[in-house]
Write a structure and sequence with these properties.
Elements (H helix, E strand, L loop, with lengths): L1 H7 L6 E5 L4 H12 L3 E4 L6 H11 L3 E4 L4 H7 L8 E4 L14 E3 H6 L15 E6 L9 E5 H11 L12 E4 L6 H4 L1 H8 L2 E2 L9 H11 L3 E4 L1 H14 L8 E4 L6 H11 L2 E7 L6 E4 L11 H8 L3 E3 L4 E5 L13 E7 L27 E9 L4 E7 L4 E3 L2 E3 L1 H9 L4 E11 L3 E10 L7 H8 L11 E4 L13 H7 L10
Parallel strand pairs: 1-2, 1-3, 2-6, 3-4, 4-5, 8-9, 8-10, 10-11, 11-12, 22-23
Antiparallel strand pairs: 6-7, 12-13, 13-14, 14-18, 15-16, 16-17, 17-18, 19-20, 21-22
Length: 498
């Protein structure tokens, strides 16, 4: 791969784009591109075309490696990508498509002409290794650049026993996409530790395909977002099939509903390891692990603990602050804006100011990165995200957590998915509105859900109304798109106001 890049004329520091799934060719690119001193720029093919267009041009990618399924996207954009010199399609000659992409090449044909020996260059550890853009739900996406040093430190600390415990004894299935913050570091930590890797290709949300891979390849550990796990759990329940070799699953990208934790443990004896992070934190910030002295906790108490986002891993410092930037106590009660810093936390965005505290720089003068999350931290160091700053519902001068409402709602057996947003109220300024997707063939009513929630939520957090929809909007990374939801329901009025 590295020899092919040299033959193409790519040079040290060039950005090399990828639009690809979790497969072996993409893994070859991770190492061939970065190891030769270039920057492996993973691009999310699920983004809106105009976002993909902006990202490729902003990064000034010289070459794009593209999966067969994504070729039509680039064909539609090709006239707007003047800096791209060639497109390498990730397939062999037998499956090479007829394409309108200029200077299109076949990946396997390109590699077949190259030597397997390469004189790997040595360079400063702070050299750029990889690049990933934020999803850009507001404004243009921003490019986060990872160095070789930050990537290695992230892999080392992420593979420790109280993190994902990567080792040669494990078989790991990274379902989280390789274009989503480098699959949470799995391609680095797994190979560093010698774990066998099983790659799902584009079938990341297919319960049947995932169950078959897990059973056939004897997968012991896997990572993915909550919606993936809900789909797999429902498939296993429907078919009666099992995943006997799996011992742990890692959940991130969004708050993990308690029902996922309970179902994995009670139905499959699998432990859920919840974590938290962002594109700007490479992404690992916190991860769940039990501490000594917790052996006597009941199963319900453990479930409560697993619903939190875990403890900070070595290398990450955390703090929560109030609106005046005053640090708040770790008492499990106070909650405020979550800030972090560490050796793999972004200190700047590609093409924007890197002067701390200036506009466009993500860190302040002391190096703290404002995550945009609202959190609480208990005396044992377990952090719980209560909301995004922009998603907090402010009612009667109090903050209400939309995540708390959503997690309570999806624990109802007839609810498939739920989102809570704040809508205008003349007395309280805002009140919670709950938007619900029923499970297939279920007809649960608003009144039944309200009754169910009364024992789970504080009166202030109780939704004033429930709206049923066929589906909820999601971002390209699988998170609830509350910006789109608020736009759709911008003229909504609570019944008492109507």
């Amino acid at each position: 791969m590295a020899n092919a890049l040299v033959e193409l004329g790519a040079k040290f520091g060039d950005r090399i784009g990828t639009l690809a799934w979790n497969d072996y060719r993409h893994l070859e690119l991770y190492y061939g591109v970065s190891g030769s001193g270039m920057v492996c720029h993973t691009i999310n093919p699920k983004l809106f075309p105009e976002q993909v267009n902006y990202i490729i041009n902003h990064a000034e990618d010289r070459f794009i490696f593209v999966d067969l399924l994504v070729v039509p996207l680039l064909e539609a954009l090709k006239d707007h990508l003047p800096m791209v010199e060639g497109y390498i399609i990730l397939t062999d000659e037998a499956h090479m498509p007829n394409t309108t992409l200029p200077n299109a090449m076949c990946y396997e044909t390109l590699l077949s002409k190259q030597s397997t020996a390469f004189d790997w260059p040595e360079f400063d550890e702070n050299t750029a290794s990889a690049m990933c853009y934020t999803s850009g739900t507001t404004g243009n996406p921003k490019g986060v650049v990872y160095s070789h040093r930050s990537t290695l430190l992230h892999a080392i600390c992420g593979s420790m026993p109280d993190a994902v415990a990567a080792s040669y004894k494990e078989t790991t299935l990274p379902i989280v996409p390789m274009f989503h913050v480098n699959a949470w570091g799995s391609p680095y930590a797994s190979l560093m530790a010698g774990s066998k890797m099983v790659m799902p290709g584009p079938k990341m949300a297919d319960g049947e395909a995932l169950q078959n891979l897990i059973e056939t390849e004897k997968v012991t550990f896997s990572s993915g977002v909550p919606t993936i796990w809900l789909g797999l759990l429902d498939y296993l329940e429907k078919t009666g099939k099992t995943i006997p070799t799996m011992t742990r699953v890692s959940v991130g990208g969004a708050a993990c509903p308690r029902t996922i934790i309970e179902r994995f443990k009670q139905q499959h004896d699998i432990e859920v390891v919840q974590g938290w992070g962002m594109t700007e934190t490479s992404p690992l910030g916190t991860i769940f692990c039990k501490k000594a002295g917790m052996e006597e906790l009941t199963q319900d108490e453990l479930f409560d603990l697993q619903c939190m986002q875990g403890r900070g891993v070595f290398g990450i410092e955390m703090r929560i602050v109030d609106e005046k930037n005053q640090e708040l106590p770790w008492d499990g009660v106070a909650f405020g804006a979550l800030k972090v810093k560490g050796p793999w936390v972004a200190s700047g965005y590609y093409g924007l100011s890197k002067v701390p505290g200036s506009e466009g720089c993500p860190v302040d003068e002391l190096g703290w990165f404002d995550t945009g999350d609202v959190a609480t931290i208990n005396p044992q160091g377990y952090m719980r995200i209560t909301d995004r700053t922009k998603d907090v519902i402010k009612t009667g001068g109090e903050w209400v957590s939309s995540i708390e409402i959503e997690n309570a709602a999806v624990s109802h057996p007839d609810v498939a998915e739920a989102a809570a947003i704040g809508r205008y109220h003349p007395k309280w300024t805002e009140r919670p509105l709950l938007v619900v997707v029923r499970k297939a063939d279920k007809s649960v009513s608003s009144e039944q859900i309200i009754t169910f929630l009364q024992s789970k939520l504080h009166k202030l957090s109780m939704p004033d109304d429930i709206v049923f929809v066929d589906e909820l909007p999601h971002t390209a990374t699988g998170k609830l798109n509350k910006l789109a939801l608020r736009k759709t329901l911008e003229n909504y009025q609570f019944p008492a106001q109507a």
